[in-house]
Specification:
Elements: H1 2-14, H2 21-33, E1 40-43, H3 50-59, E2 68-72, H4 81-86, E3 87-88, E4 101-102, H5 104-107, E5 112-116, H6 123-135, E6 137-138, E7 147-148, E8 152-157, H7 161-166, H8 172-178, E9 181-184, H9 195-210, E10 216-217, H10 221-226, H11 233-247, E11 252-253, H12 259-273, H13 282-300, H14 305-312, H15 316-323
Parallel strand pairs: 1-8, 1-9, 2-5, 5-8, 10-11
Antiparallel strand pairs: 3-4, 6-7
Helix pairs in contact: 1-3, 9-11, 12-13, 13-14
């Protein structure tokens, strides 16, 4: 049975594109955790693929033959929490469906329940979730018949739980309940080796979705993308590649097709280059001249920090220091 689950769940793991050490570790963790019927908490920055990780856990779990039910904890209106989670009986309130309605807990019975953005869950929802997790029992709104749901809970967040708990915004007892096992989805900065595979996948998917000719990856594109900071991670990369596909006229996407990234660089560099030199000490003037030369080189090399450091004869570590950031791991 374990081998059969692994075979069925492989497509879900394949959707997690990459061969970097970071993504290999994540896939390995998922393969070990999924068959164990324990709650899983997925942490990671926004856009790192937490939903894909949840889908893979479900696909490799004992609940794989049943539903994976999604709940966005941050988007649930407080007034509709009970009806969304517990469901309701016929005639429970004005406007209720005649046959009543199943809630998320009921739909997830013998399956998995994925609570996305669980760190943003209002306290009143936290209390209700905790009660169900304690024994699985609940009632529909407007009903008195006891119901029971046996589901695998998978939660995800990009929030810092230590801070939330210290500020009284998240219950400590619920945190212990949802974090039977915790895994982390790596940021794109930690898996830059996966850029060629990710860009290729996004190009293929875009061409298939829009029934348009597929494109290659032009010279220097991967290096250009590797120099970006990617605060939105893989999701941001996906959007930028799709926009580059739209603007591309040739057989390959080129650096020039990433117009939004380039325009952002131009705006930033233009503001810096036009800044007047300070009227203070010589040291301040030299520092400003140094920044001006760096930003001028960044424009000419389209943000390629490696090329900039080589031209100016400085280390990349010093370049990142001048720019006010930290040097990424090599």
């Amino acid at each position: 049975r374990a081998a059969s689950r692994a075979h069925r769940g492989q497509p879900a793991l394949d959707h997690m594109v990459g061969r970097s050490d970071a993504i290999r570790q994540l896939k390995s963790d998922i393969a070990k955790i999924a068959p164990q019927n324990v709650p899983v908490l997925i942490v990671g920055e926004s856009g790192t693929g937490k939903e894909l990780a949840a889908q893979a856990i479900h696909a490799l779990s004992r609940q794989a033959n049943n539903r994976l039910v999604f709940v966005n904890a941050a988007a649930m209106p407080p007034g509709l929490v009970e009806t969304e989670l517990f469901g309701y009986e016929a005639g429970a309130f004005t406007g209720a469906e005649r046959a009543g309605r199943k809630g998320k807990f009921e739909l997830a019975d013998h399956g998995s329940l994925f609570f996305d953005e669980v760190g943003d869950m209002p306290l009143e929802i936290q209390v209700k979730l905790l009660r169900v997790m304690q024994d699985g029992g609940y009632e529909r709104v407007g009903g008195s018949r006891p119901l029971h749901s046996d589901f695998r809970l998978i939660s995800a967040t990009n929030r810092n739980f230590k801070e939330l708990i210290a500020e009284g915004k998240f219950r400590l007892d619920l945190y212990y309940r949802i974090s039977g096992v915790t895994i982390r989805t790596p940021s794109l900065r930690e898996r830059l080796d996966d850029l060629p595979l990710l860009v290729r996948r996004f190009l293929d998917d875009f061409a298939e979705k829009h029934r348009s000719p597929n494109k290659g990856i032009g010279k220097g594109v991967i290096e250009f993308l590797a120099e970006r900071s990617w605060p939105g991670n893989v999701r941001q990369l996906l959007h930028e590649v799709e926009k580059a596909m739209i603007f591309s006229d040739g057989p390959d996407i080129a650096i020039e097709d990433f117009r939004h990234i380039l325009s952002t660089l131009d705006d930033f560099d233009g503001e810096t280059a036009s800044a007047p030199l300070p009227s203070g000490s010589l040291r301040d003037a030299v520092a400003e001249l140094e920044k001006s030369m760096i930003h001028d080189a960044l424009r000419r090399y389209r943000g390629n920090k490696k090329r900039v450091a080589e031209e100016l004869g400085i280390s990349r570590a010093y370049l990142y220091k001048v720019l006010g950031g930290t040097q990424p791991d090599e």
